[in-house]
Amino acid sequence: MTTLAVDIGGMSIKLLVLDEQGEPLSETSARPTPVPPTPDAVIALVHDIADTLPPHQRVSVGFPGVVKGGVTWNAPNLGDALWNRVPLSERLSDRLGRPVRAVNDVDLQGLGVVRGDGVELVLTLGTGMGAALFTDGALVPNLELGHHPFRDGQTYEDLVRDSELKRIGRVEWTKRVLDAIQQIEPIFNYDRLHLGGGNSLNIQSDLPGNVRVFTLAEGLRGALRLWDDA
Fold first, then answer.
1. Total-model pTM
2. Are residues 126 and 188 located together in one domain of the fold?
């Protein structure tokens, strides 16, 4: 069964079709996120892109906010008011004519990259900072670590978000990322940290041995695992 993987982000929306083994059947198709990013506009764009891709039987969506039972509760980088209690899975399923499962975007990518043993933390660095926590492969959903205090009254996301990278440059931004990792490690005592998101490629330093950088294509393989119980 083929799966359409959808990654909804603050800057772009990306779609990719995967075969039963998680191998891509298409190139990743990306378009800028609509402005304003209303549910109607985002759903319409996903529909339009999906129509250009190979056939698929089901859809997995990663959304940048808290998602419970396929319903979005917030979206800090899209607009909380726009996405309060939106039945995203249901609305996309109605529009695409296929079954849809929607979860937090980092939760979905984490499913694609974790090994499944020990404590594993997943962080993505992009418009903001996303996080997901796994213990022996089991997900602790909707971990909004990016919005926790980091230092000087600011959150992790405040200090490592994309706008800060552009403002202070790669070298200083990298120092902040390494400081964040150093602070987070003794909180979770993770065995492995997986770093993703487009800005993970901007880190200008070697990383600790238990930290690895993963690609979006790797993360989107979580679209298959989202249907493990189907």
1. 0.95
2. yes
